[in-house]
């Protein structure tokens, strides 16, 4: 197959006739096409774009900046707005250029953009601008980013009605091809009618990619010959009395819109029958849902004609063009209007048809049927299955009863039901702060206080109970609702989170309102140096911390505090207002406690750069990258989770070991925030210098290894082929979807890729729906229908086993390739004992997919071991699926797509090829790696469990100490065997928990575990080059105490500490003796008492042990598992364990009394 010659910038080169691009990129390409059309017509025009970002248009400004050189070549200026209504006013100004002398162009075409709520807040500006009109050679498109599914919004929104209220015509494109075609029609309509033209841009299209046609002369504009232009025309003028403008807008402008739509057949019949009985009207995404519903029901165009269907695709949803609508309705008995969200076309169609002869007027249904019963929902999003159900219902109403259709519909509806299985998965991959995110710390509130959320990533605090954060307002009004609450509640104070982007957008006015009202409130302005939620853009105006400090000080704040992870970075002198104080983030709790007691408006500016933006800048060499990493000594680690409590960080991950669940740092994901080090635990060290060790691939002859790797059999396509890519936000899942789409484009196939992200890009569930077909016209809906996935490329098992993914599968048809690695979810941060349900998920996948079609592979473990970075996982998975014959694309196209993407080309190619080899012959991969599990598997046999721990206790203290352990366990084993010869549950529990209590980590043991050689080996396996270690400790004799909590604070000790450890480790013989200098502390006395109490309890309980008592006694014996940590952390856990022990002992006594009574 000859590959298409493709370059990354083809999407913006006018000579490219067929291109692969995203919805966002199509909106960047559109003004270039308009400028080229103007040039071909002899017009010297310019373009002007302004607006404000927000999902699904969150990356539009980013794409415009990246295409700056291309835009400049076409005299297109992009000036982002401070907020949406100011941006709308700026675009209005672009139409005023020709009103005064000095114009350098014949006209300026404009684009305004905003998220749905931005449309709402800008209505005043939009009404004024639309009433004023557009220039004859200008024209304006108003892009409304509507989030119908509320994927990344506080409310689902729909902008058509808002545009209609401002008398702005509305275009609703269905596909990316429509973005270009209808966008050009939109500019022409705007010029002809003098109206702004609304352009609906929903998540389904903006966040998709496709291979489309892009000839500037593809669209043929027809000017109406049945419309008489009034004197003076319809375009912008000055002066323009308001009532004259209103008269022109309601009269000739609306008539011009109708005439243009009629002349250019913006609304058209796309399928007809003779005779037709049932007409279906659809627009935008709903049209694609309709076409997919027909396909899912097995209704071809020929079948549709046999059924008497007529389909009307509407592009101009307001005002609905009347003559075309009437022609469509002629001869029909029934009309079904398919549209997403509130009915809009349906009401217009009813009005248009109301006055025709009743005998010729069809029944019009949509949101409800003729009896008023619900038919299509107004809430949420439509799916092809929902549309199919409504369609079959209308066919039944017309007397068409088809068992085949009913059977197919039942099959579709079954896919929408939860997968039936005997096991249920509780775990879910929910959005969460990035590794090292400033909000991990900044959104904390002191005990006894609560906060209110705001717009931005920090809003995820709403889903974290420990943050005590509730309620959210629209953007820019953060905290103002407290003005209405405070007079009527006993609460005296509230904290309000406010992002720096929102502050710049409109949030400063909220502070002003709070100051004027005199309420007691502390605003936490979260200065992250980037608008992270939409891609890391700078906040407009680029205010620095000092400028914001002076601004808020001028608003009359009573107290101002600056909190930072690096307070020493600020210049000396009058950098901040007099009275402002500067603090380290460790002091945040104390600062908040102080400010909440001050009457009136107080402000904290929390200054820490966005972690994701730090990572981006470091890759580009624009931000310091300290040669420093956090590392955990797993044997010292108690698994208490205090490091997770301190950092709230997802890079602190579980490590399953022989001695229970410990912690490790995911070095690939870590953003070097180092707040985890503040967890009260001596297991943390920081590694200074050196680099992460990567496998010496130079020692592997990959050429020979890959030389005989065969190509999988070619797969021919006769229709769409559907690949669902699942994974975790921020790990490259979307890149895999883009690679597949680009490879299909390079192969000359039709393709689409729809990305579901929203806030999910923040460690949540992410999916990419990839559809590949022989040609672009073969693809209707970009979302894979229920039961329609041919392949699941499961880069994360949790997402793959969730209902959203499994609803796309069909047992025995879908093939699934699943990464076995389980990255912790957000829940793990708060629950150190979280069950990751590996076995349950595998069962659910087997039930849904079938054993024959399911491959589960530890892709992360293999890829990270081979490539030194877990980011190689996804291309490895792609290579694995390709070699299995599940990717219907050529090898050359996939490799070329990796090259076109331009990022880490050689690494991605190599990871892809390793994946191919793993699919072909896993033994060869393992032989290269000498592969081992990253975490040592816990011992299985009881004898091994006991022997391993006895050996450890010998090293811990001496043989006598180990013999004491062995004797105690043997006594339990004998009693359990007598009570129940087949049971070992109690013995195993006691063996593990007695060991845990006896091997308490005092100063001697911590020293031994740093000097016995095992830790040094772990460090050398992970790091290369010259490096030094520093230890994070809080020895009671040296450590300072926190002024607020009274707890010991950790300090950093240099490499010399290893010598002190060696001395201390040799003194372990002093442990527990009269000469033990540490043994008299409360903590050490408690630890020795715990051992004695445990032995006494066990010995008492095994006397006369009965088989039925074993399960409950094992639960009691297992309580020490929860006694973890050091210092105050362990002290708190000891108290909790004591309470649980008392509860279980009471339950055990009650069970004995009950047994005796029987």
What is shown here, in short?
With 1158 residues, the chain is α/β, with parallel strands linked by helices.
How would you describe this structure to a colleague?
It is a single chain. About 40% of the residues lie in helices and about 15% in strands. It is of the alpha/beta class and about 1150 residues long. An eight-stranded mixed β-sheet has the order 1-8-27-28-26-29-30-31, with helices on both faces. The N and C termini lie far apart (about 80 Å).
Q: Given the helix and strand composition, which structural class is it?
A: alpha/beta
Question: What is the CATH superfamily label of the largest domain?
Answer: Thiamin diphosphate (ThDP)-binding fold, Pyr/PP domains
Counting DSSP H or I runs of 4 or more residues, the number of helices is: 43
Assign the CATH topology of the largest domain. Answer: Rossmann fold
The major sheet is characterized as:
8 strands, mixed
Compute the average pLDDT: 92
- Which term fits the overall shape? globular
Helix content bin: 40-55%
Any low-confidence stretches, pLDDT <50, length ≥5?
931-936
Number of separate domains: 6
Strand content: 15-25%
Read across the widest sheet, the strand sequence of neighbours is: 1-8-27-28-26-29-30-31
CATH architecture of the largest domain: 3-Layer(aba) Sandwich
Instruction: Tell me the radius of gyration.
Output: 34 Å
